[in-house]
Specification:
Number of strands: 2
Largest sheet: 2 strands, parallel
Structural class: mainly alpha
Radius of gyration: 17 Å
Number of domains: 1
Number of helices: 8
Strand order of the largest sheet: 1-2
Shape: globular
Strand content: under 5%
Oligomer: single chain
Distance between the termini: 35 Å
Low-confidence stretches: none
Helix content: 40-55%
Order of helices and strands: HHHHEHEHHH
Length: 145
């Protein structure tokens, strides 16, 4: 046991991640195991990190590239996956999206990150899709990731 845990106790476990019925076929037991190994603080850090990168990209698209809010939002959707941890967050969108573009369960984050890092999901594939979430769904259902 680490010194920090000895003095301050263990970490709070990751909150349960709800899976929408349309997304159940995407999630594997390995995804659930990965999620369950995280702490609550890990989950918060992952979400904050995602938000920082999305906001930076959105700001760049608006201020440097001169895109409208809607255009910048669409470009961010092509650049970053969006996730939900609670069912009510899945439908919480500022833009009208198809079912394929809907947010993905957070338990998929590790598998998606590994697919991006190994270049299984590349810019060419994403540019042909309506969003990175749509291509992730397609690739998981086809067994590519």
């Amino acid at each position: 046991m680490g010194l920090f845990k000895k003095f301050f106790g263990g970490c709070q476990p990751a909150p349960p991640c709800a899976i929408h019925p349309d997304d159940r076929d995407l999630v594997s037991s390995e995804d659930i195991e990965w999620w369950n190994k995280l702490s609550f603080q890990d989950c918060q850090a992952l979400e904050q990190e995602d938000n920082v990168f999305r906001l930076a990209a959105f700001t760049k698209f608006r201020e440097t590239d001169g895109l409208s809010t809607e255009e910048a939002g669409k470009k961010v959707r092509l650049s970053f996956p969006f996730y939900y941890g609670k069912l009510e967050h899945r439908a919480d969108e500022k833009f009208t999206l198809s079912t394929a573009d809907a947010k993905l369960p957070y338990v998929l984050k590790d598998r998606i990150n590994r697919a991006v890092m190994s270049r299984l999901i590349d810019k060419k594939a994403v540019m042909q899709a309506s969003s990175i979430n749509a291509i992730v769904r397609e690739f998981i259902r086809s067994g590519r990731i």
